[in-house]
Design brief:
heterodimer; A: mainly alpha; 4 helices; 0% strand; B: mainly alpha; 2 domains; 84% helix
Amino acid sequence: MFTAIYHYLYLTVLIILAAMLFVCLLRAVKGPRVADRLVAVNMMGTIVMVMIGILALMLNEGYLVDVSLVYAMISFLAVVILSKVYIGIYEENRHKADASGPEEKGGMSDGTV
Amino acid sequence: MELFEWIRLIVGGIFILCGLVVFFTELFGVFRFRYVLNRMHAAAMGDTLGISCCLIGLIIFSGINFTSLKLLLIVIFLWFASPVSSHVLARLEVATNENLSSECSVYEDLETLQADMAADEHDADGKGGAL
C-alpha cells in the first residue's frame, strides 16, 4: 500500500513542478531585460533539480542524485559566466560607440556605481 | 512499525508541500514585481528555502543512506552558490542599465549616501522636536 501512496505522491508533485516550469519559461521568454531572463533560467534550474531528486526516489535509482548535483554546479556556472560575458559585450559596444576618446580603461570605474 | 511509516510519510509530505508553497510564492513574486532588482528577492528565496524544504522532505522519505547524503550536499552547495549568482546578476543589471536612476535611487559614492541619511535623520529629529 505504501508503494502506491508514494508513487502517486511523487507523480502529483512532479506534475505541479512541471506546470511551474512552464510558467518560468514564460517569464524567460517575456523578460524585458537580460537579467530577467537569467533570473528565470536560474529558477528553472532549481525546479529541475527538485524534479531529478524526486525521480531518483521514484525510480529507486540512486545515481540520478549525482546528475542533480552536477546540474546544480553547471547551472551556477552558467549564470556567472553569462553575466560576465554580457558585461564584457556591453563594455565593448560602449567603447566602440565612443571610440573618439583616447582613454581605453575608463569604462570600469563608472560601471560599478 | 506501521505507525512509524505513517509518521514518516506525513512529515515528509508536509516538508514537500512547504517547498511547493515556497516555489509558488517565488513564481507569484517574479510575475508581480515590476523590475529585475525587485524580482531577484523572490527568485533567491526559492533557490535556498524552496529547494531545502523539498529536499529535506525527500531525505525523510529516503532514510539514512548515501542518497540522502548527496541530497544534503545539493542543499549546502546551493546555500553557497545562490547568493553569489544573485550578486553577479545584480552587478550585470547595474552595469548595463543606462537609466537606472529612473527605477531606483542611485548614489554616486558612499559619502553622498551617508550625507543623505544624516540629513534625513536630522530632519526627523527636527520634526520630533517641533512636535
